[in-house]
Amino acid sequence: MDIEGAEKALLDPALYPALQKMDVVVELHDVLDKSISSTILSRFAPTHETQLVCNKPVLFDFESIVGPSVYIEPSDMLLAGWENRAGPTPWGVMWAKRSS
Predict the structure, then answer these.
(1) 34: which residues sit within 8 A by CB, 6+ positions away?
(2) Ramachandran class of 74: left when φ > 0, alpha when ψ lies in -120 to 50, beta otherwise
(3) Per the domain annotation, does 46 fall within a domain?
(4) What range does the domain containing 18 cover?
(5) CA within 13 Å, CB half, 2
(6) What is the pLDDT of residue 100?
(7) pLDDT (0 to 100) of residue 84
(8) Burial, 47: exposed, middle or buried (Cβ in 10 Å; 0-12, 13-18, 19+)?
(9) Is residue 88 part of a domain?
(10) 3-class secondary structure for the chain?
(11) Which of 20, 21, 34, 83 lies 20 to 30 angstroms, CA to CA, from 70?
(12) Strands 24-27 and 48-53
């Protein structure tokens, strides 16, 4: 999910208990509030296995669309996936712990 900075208000398993049983993947907008990632991961830690996945530049795979015979500039491949963020927006991945 991508909720543009409202992560702290909406992703609280104590307030919304159904979240305790759901797997969650969410973009965390630390660019707006540096405590978002740590807050969300700590809220989910008692009921979930958590992981923070940091963004990294990736070249867009045009070849799978246009075929290998069309040349695409590498800078165009980079720009196709660039969101022009002013700071970090890692992803929080939380897998609900299943009882055995």
Answers:
(1) none
(2) alpha
(3) yes
(4) 7-96
(5) 2
(6) 59
(7) 75
(8) middle
(9) yes
(10) CCCCCCHHHHCCCCCCHHHHHCCEEEECCCCCCCCHHHHHHHHHCCCEEEEEECCCCCCCCCHHHHCCCCCCCHHHHHHHCCCCCCCCCCEEEEEECCCC
(11) 83
(12) unpaired
How far from each other are the two terminal CA atoms of the chain, in whole angstroms? 28
Residue 2 lies in a domain: no
Is residue 48 a contact partner of residue 96, using CB atoms and an 8 Å limit?
yes
* Tokens standing for residue 26: 């969410």
Q: Which residue has the tokens 């830690």?
A: 45
Query: Do the Cβ atoms of 62 and 70 come closer than 8 Å?
Result: yes
Cβ atoms of 3 and 10 within 8 Å: the answer is: yes
Please report the pLDDT score of residue 13 as a whole number.
96
User: Which parts of the chain register pLDDT below 50?
Assistant: none
Count up the domains in the chain and report the number. Answer: 1
Residue 61 and residue 58: Cα distance in Å, rounded? 9
Q: Is the residue at 1 inside a domain?
A: no
pTM (predicted TM-score):
0.76
